[in-house]
Each structure stands twice: as C-alpha cells, then as structure tokens.
C-alpha cells in the first residue's frame, strides 16, 4: 500500500514516527499522524487545515489535548464520558495512579526499553487510519493516497484525533467541501 502514497503522505507517516520518538512513545498512534499533518506545508492536507483555521494557537491546543489523552492512558473524551456514565471517574483514577506511580504513569511508556527492537510499530488505530485513507482515495477515484486522504481518514474514524480536529471545526464534511468543492476554497 505504501507505494501508492504521494511524497506528502509518506512525509506524514515518517513525521508520525518522528513525533512518536520525540514524545518517547513506544508506538505510532493516530495523534502522531495528526501532529505530522499539522507540520506539513504546501500540500493538499495543509491547505485544508489552513483554510479551516487550524494554525498556530489551534495547533498548540491540539498538542495539549493529545498530551492530556496520553496522560489518561489513551482514553478519548467519548471513552471517559462513557465510563462516567457507569460511575467511573477517570480523572480520579488518573490522579490516584499518578500519586502512586508518578505523573504520566498511564501513558504506557516503559522506562526500560531494553527489550525493544528500536523500530516503532503502528497501533491498530493508526493502521486502520492508513487503511481508511486508501478506501477514501479509492472512493474518490484518486489514483494515489495523499496527505489529504490521511486527514479525511482521521476525521472519519472515531477517536482522539477526530475529537481534536472537531474541536476546531475540522470534520470530514468541512475537509471534503474545501478539497473537492461546495465551498469557497478549493485545493488544486
């Protein structure tokens, strides 16, 4: 599948790996794909994000949200709300775990990396996002998978990245409108 990726899409995947390494994560997650997309300039995906106002301060907000999710052990707001409906206070659990084991203990990253081969694997969600980008490209009759398809896939799948994007008005519908018509701006 990777051979069908444009240079921009490949740069997003490589950037996601770099964000994973920089943040000390053992795996590459959807949030890392989103951060890598936010790094891009001069691509269709970056055009859509810029057109929808996701720049500068909004990027900082997304980074803070992703850090908070990591602190909660990867639970999205929807996950935390569902648990709250069952009477489980995620904030209280995080607080107690951090009191006992230190801040970020639920982040899942082991300090002992001795067993690790050095190659980061992609989480199931990140893999499914990349697979979804292929399905989206095929559905739009695009020959190659671009970073815009990764962006669309992130907005189409439930999860942390979609929540972060939606908080800034970036949804599947708004990205589609900007990229493929029906809106004022259209990427070329």
From TrEMBL:
Gene3D superfamilies: Clp, N-terminal domain (1.10.1780.10). GO terms for molecular function: peptidase activity. GO terms for biological process: proteolysis. The keyword Hydrolase applies. It holds the Pfam family Clp_N. Keywords: Hydrolase, Protease, Repeat. InterPro entries: Clp_N_dom_sf, Clp_R_N. Residues 2-188 form the Clp R domain. The keyword rRNA-binding does not apply. This is Clp protease N-terminal domain-containing protein.
């Amino acid at each position: 599948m990777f051979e069908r990726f444009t240079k921009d899409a490949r740069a997003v995947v490589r950037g996601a790996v770099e964000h994973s390494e920089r943040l000390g994560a053992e795996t590459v997650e959807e949030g890392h794909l989103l951060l890598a997309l936010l790094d891009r300039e001069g691509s269709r995906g970056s055009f859509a994000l810029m057109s929808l106002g996701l720049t500068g301060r909004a990027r900082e907000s997304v980074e803070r949200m992703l850090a908070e999710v990591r602190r909660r052990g990867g639970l999205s707001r929807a996950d935390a709300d569902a648990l709250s409906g069952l009477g489980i206070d995620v904030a209280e659990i995080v607080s107690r775990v951090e009191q006992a084991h230190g801040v970020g203990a639920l982040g899942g990253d082991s300090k002992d990396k001795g067993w690790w081969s050095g190659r980061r694997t992609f989480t199931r969600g990140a893999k499914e996002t990349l697979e979804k980008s292929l399905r989206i490209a095929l559905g739009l009759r695009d020959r190659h998978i671009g970073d815009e398809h990764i962006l669309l896939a992130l907005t189409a799948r439930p999860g942390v990245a979609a929540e972060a994007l939606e908080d800034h008005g970036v949804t599947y519908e708004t990205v589609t409108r900007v990229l493929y018509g029906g809106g004022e701006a259209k990427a070329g």
